Fold:
Amino acid sequence: MKVRSQSGWFSNGLFWRTFFLLTFLITASMVAWVASFRMVERGPRAEQLAAQIVSVVTITRAALTHSAPEMRRELLFDLASNEGIRIYPLEKSDRVMPPEDSPMVPELEYYVRQSLDENTLFASSVNDVDGFWISFNIDDDRYWLMLDRGRLDRTSGLQWLGWGSIALFLSLIGAGFISTLINQPLARLTAAARAIGKGRQPEPLPEAGPTEIEEANRSFNQMVADINRVESDRALILAGISHDLRTPLARMQLEVEMATLSDEARDGMHSDLAQMDSIIGQFLDYAKPFDASNLDSVDLSSLLQDVIASATRLPDVRITSQIAPTSEVAGNATELARVFNNLVENARRYGKTPDTDCAEIELRTRNEGHHVIIDISDHGPGVPESECERLLRPFTRLDDARGQANGSGLGLAIVNRIVLRHNGKLLLKGHDDRHGGLLVQITLPLMHHRRHA
Structure:
């Protein structure tokens, strides 16, 4: 299960929080269960092993006591080869190593000494021979009885580790599955909300599953329907108002032409009417619906060259460019051309270099990974960094910052709306102390990346 984030595989997302929380709880439960089991079973296990040892010692001692002297050698051989039991005389010179330190050893020694003899000795090694050694008496003679350690040892630590690893692995798979079930509806909801933020129409969320998820998805679907209805109504209202306003504007232009006015007054009224017509056009552009299914391959380099050619014909614009040779994006050529023409016009109106009547515009593109980045900057009065985000809102103007009062405040809002609909990102950067001006940076996904995504 691959969960991607801005920095790589792992993130601070809900999936990994849920996964690691479940992993921690499962691991802690397993450790607590194993510890509790080993503590609870220690006494019964020690008593069981003690009974087994006592039985072996008692049977061996009885066999040696009641067997004929000439048969004891053969009996000892059979015990060693078939049962893994070895009998050695106990000498004072024996090099004895005490039993290994284990929580169960004291209890084992206690139960064995209760059944055999208080003076029974235990050892883990005698004369450098490893095993489980226990002493016993036959009349006045003392002997060592050695058992293979594996015959008495409990399940080894490696076995516990192996079983625990298998259980933990299966538990992690289960934790991942549970985390996916919990977070999948939230991931689907997040993707749908992100699509709405980019101006796209998401698929309706499934209204099924747990009650909380079902209600959340139903509410979200209803919200999307309400937004679409509001958007449609707003577009209809703006389009209707704009259309109705153009009729009296045309009448006013005709009346201005026929009226007896001075040239200065006539030019001023023509300018005001043209500005009103331009604002109405911006209303229509902002309200116009967008069909994301009709995106074609657009040669961005060629489109920008056309924009530059149109801009250089303006007397108050000087534009320098550095265009990447090949940049194909998926989009609507008309809409993308409107984006860059609006930005050039915005720089021409508000970004003239101080003490001049000319807007010096720089347009550069570069490819980075699967995206193309377009930078459009001017050297005008600039915009404070704190106001850059607000400029992207509809009907927003910074008259003091850019020194103008014309326009409807929809230019950058239209640009941002079109960029978002093309799966892109628009960023404004305010002036600095050296160069001044405003930098508009647009990031769009390249066409070959969309094909392989």
